[in-house]
Amino acid sequence: KYDNVDLDEILENDHLLIPYIKCTLDEGKCAPDAKELKEHIQEALETGCAKCTDKQKEGTRRVIAHLIKHKNADWQKLKAKYDPEGKYAKKYEKELEEVKNA
């Protein structure tokens, strides 16, 4: 589903990126793509993105890296919302370190 989304265009343009972030944080309206993304976050965390394509997994890594490096306050809010106990951060610790250093 998300294979045709231009991640570079979204990540390089706050006007496009911020609405996605606000949607996933329940702080704003959700466009159809953002709403669908939000609906799959919990499942992806729980299953290690089992239903994701390789391209989607790579895209997820790129988005997380961008948020950590350029939108860290939003990243912290997302972690607080979707991983309040830190269990997924622990589960994906190695991958997060790789993403941070990419």
TrEMBL record:
The protein depicted here goes by the name Chemosensory protein 24
According to the record, the signal peptide region is none
Q: Which SUPFAM superfamilies match?
A: Chemosensory protein Csp2
Q: Which domain of life is it from?
A: Eukaryota
Any Pfam family matching the protein: OS-D
The family database entries (InterPro entries) matched by this protein are listed as:
A10/PebIII, OS_D_A10/PebIII_sf
